[in-house]
Amino acid sequence: MTNQFDNYRDPVEPRRRKGQGGPGGPGGPGGKKRRRRGAGAMDGSREERMVPDMQFESYYGKPVVKAPPWEWPIGAYLFLGGVAGGSSLLGLGAQLTDRPILRRNSRLAAITAAGAGSLALIADLGRPERLLNMFRVVKLSSPMNLGSWLLAGFSTMAAVAAAAEVDDLTGRRLPLPEMVRTVTHQAAAPTAGAVAGALGAPLAVYTAVLFGDTSNPAWNAAKYHLPFLFVSSASAASGGLAMITTPVNEAGPARVLAATGAVCDVAVTKAMHSQLDEVSVEPYHHGTAGKLMTWAERLVIAGGVGTLLAGRHRVGAALSGAALLAGSALTRFGVLEAGHHSVTDPKYVVEPQKARLAQRQRAGDTGDNITTGR
Amino acid sequence: MTVKSTNQVTEYPDHVGYAEDSRQAFFTDTSVCIGCKACEVACKEWNRNPVEGYELSGNSYDNTGSLGADTWRHVAFIEQDQDRIEQARESGRALVGLGMPSVGNPADTAPSVAGEPVHPDTPDFRWLMSSDVCKHCTNAGCLDVCPTGALFRTEFGTVVVQDDVCNGCGTCVAGCPFGVIERRADGGVEKRDTREGEDFTEGVSAKARNIGVAQKCTLCYDRLKDGLQPACQKACPTESIQFGDRDEMLRRAHERLAVLHSQGKTEARLYGANDLDGVGGTGSIFLLLDAPEVYGLPPDPRVPTADLPAMAKKAALAAAGMAAAVVGSFLIGART
Hints:
Chain A is mainly alpha-helical. Helix content of chain A is 64%, strand content 1%.
């Protein structure tokens, strides 16, 4: 019993302590005396408290930052953008090393994934009819803006490259003038394929910057890891897709890329989990995001091992490729979900911020505190 | 104090065309807030923001919850016992000591009133009330990441959304370190908005405007244009919300802080008055009576774009690695 006013209240749940997880309990009214004396002095004035006491008062456990209105289509786009980028690189490689089937399949995969991904992006807009406003400006500080330009340019190039393949697939039956056909196959498609290939890696990686460049605690904490995770995931997925679509005798490079991607994916995930601080990495471990990330890792490992052991058999290659694709998709949905989870509990925002503030102040840097006492 | 740019990518006053001396700002002095919510009501009425429901939260007198697309002023209510009042006083006192390490123990240098409790009205209990609002940051995360240019810096130094340009991509929602801006509910992919139709004005049908578009405080851009004060400040009966030139607001904030400190109320501290903080100082300065997180404010906000160049470098490295992996795959794959 804290004071007389508590007599009139319903009992409140005890305020959440560190490590208990779950949404923060109600703070404020009638709060129990659970904090040690002086726990509020997390401002660096107390030399002896080297390990920060992470308990803090929250505003009724309410979120401090908001989750963006990004739903499943954004997760799908993260995956599809990676597949498109990796496929265009494979297509360029196949084009240069004379692997016609791998080239055709990769080009078709690139435009299909980019197209489907674009539709997913548009679907998630609050006002889809204003899609073209993305191209009003060129803005270096906005990864979403540069990414839109990148995706538009990539899709255009991938479409031109794929047009030649579609023409071949349909037996060149479309009544095109011979000159147009010649230009398309001899000049336009190879050039567009090369440009799309050059834009492939940026397309696969920019979404990582887009996510890192936010105030979302889970994404922002992982801002220097996400680029490597996303390109690894994209490599594994696009290699895996080519292993499904392309006969084994032409899919050698795809197998190597898929296996490399899988190894890097697992390594980067491990590095991320060990290098982020305990609180910031928690959203990637718990709940739905944790399940998605766990299954993603299992599938990527299974796909990677399958690629190495059975990649030269048609069925083995297809199964391994499918596992890698599924693993990549789950990785992306896991990252998206981790971000959404990290805003539900204010501790993911407040605790790392208090810790870094205290750290700066211990280092003698006291001039940049947003809270000032004079 | 000079304005510090966090980097050359981030938008900051040297890049944009408002004169520093014309920057307008709020000063919200929570020590005189009485929690009447006149600001909330005035804001909602003036901006014709849709109603969000009439649920009782059970969180003291706060049934609004937080700032959002439909709530541009939000009054927080916090009930505290003697223990927490003392903690707040202690943390505030320590804050006074910061920045002058040569003076020794901060507790000794802080102004204090010996012995008796300094709150004659409520010795062992207090109610904190604070009217929260968009911070109109110097380095605004929402503005930096906006891909359409819908968010812009006005001639008053404030940050405003152009309703007719925003396409509702939601990046600004993730970009804001304070959780202020939000997309007005349309349900995203699965449309679930049902708020069409009659509103609270009898006989007048007003539909919710700007559905699916990012919305936040404009610092009453329309009123400022006509030489009026913001609606919330106009309605505030205790001058807890003050409005004017930012320099003047800063001066008043420091003045008020000194008065409270001289009364022994060392729990008082300013929030957003430091141009060297992670957002370059805010256009909404607060005088708080406890740590920011108690009010649901971040204790060390940082505009995410400050780290964008470093992120871009990592991304370039990762992209180069991916391209190299593909090259390697074709070199090795040719032999397998």
